[in-house]
């Protein structure tokens, strides 16, 4: 999602070397402002902070790894709930989530009230929105896409559809805003609607995958939420995919866009679909007040929190899910890794084993998702792909959404592929070939940059 090499230069072991990415359409040219490096990956030329791997959590005694600034997956623009051209979303415009009594979750009088991990009077920079969430600040210079629009039209003109040609074009574009340019140019040039043409000329999982690529990541997130939060029963996996382990900036933008396109407050809809404890956890998440990735892990605060975690789990009869959720949802990944390390050192048990023992069902799934993502994100990403890809637990919508999310973040995708091979003994490409077939197989292989 390298640990012992504290002075290692970029890239860390298991991450793509500099120059790995072949600039596809939409990559900013040299000198053009770049998107911040993905969460957990340092920019080229900068020293790599030690990150705990899944097997060995702790940094050297007395030290805590500080995670570099984030850059999560981002969405394309257009299709579902498309915003007006040129519109941008800013966290300051987003009202706080509704649905909680005033003062709920506030610390008791005298309780330490500084944002977790931040010394008094030491503000930390907020993470910028992920690629695909803020068009105004992220749009690259226009690309020449005349050949691509022609190729798409030829692929769907006449009898039948050339799915291979569509895969070749769609998986060549590496920036979600450039994908939106392609859609607009196709529509204006041929006086047609590309999304409707895809819907009429393709079908099944291949159609779903193509449409996911053509959406902005933001629009895709909102579409996933609409499908997940239906009265017939909440799709917890899809809900977790969108709202957990996200930056504060992304969460604010997602909530604003959800309300803009549906007319409903996201937290209020979630409240109708989950139990009370889960609602409290999601209300904490959607407040979008998690410690920014630049916030340090302060030893005294880490010790206080692991004491609280022990008291809320092993130290009581009947685990206190809300107390654990308050800690997990307020801390950044580096702080959680520090807690994992110190918890094992102090109580001689792994924190993830404690969570698995003390919780069941959806609450266990949510807490474990946050914990494992913080410990080793590439390994967590690999597991999230493997589980729904397996024939016995096959969920193609999850496979598509998770791979497309990684597609827009090439370093994170490569790290997940490396972790996948290390964990499961064979490459993700080989598993895709074994588990899928036909045009759908070709599309998934194209998304991960394989043939």
UniProtKB/TrEMBL annotation:
A family per Pfam:
Annexin
Q: Which domain of life is it from?
A: Eukaryota
Biased region (Low complexity) positions are: 8-29, 46-78
- Keywords, alphabetical: Annexin, Repeat
Which GO CC terms are listed, alphabetically? cytoplasm; nucleus; plasma membrane; vesicle membrane
Tell me yes or no: is Cytoplasm among this UniProt entry's keywords.
no
Could you cite one Gene Ontology molecular function of this protein?
calcium ion binding
Q: Which InterPro entries match?
A: Annexin (IPR001464), Annexin_repeat (IPR018502), Annexin_sf (IPR037104)
For region Disordered, the annotated ranges are 1-145
The biased composition feature labelled Pro residues covers: 30-45
Claim: Repeat is one of the keywords in the record: yes
* Similarity comment: family membership: Belongs to the annexin family.
Identification of the protein by name: Annexin
- What is the protein's species of origin? Lithohypha guttulata
Organism phylogeny: Eukaryota, Fungi, Dikarya, Ascomycota, Pezizomycotina
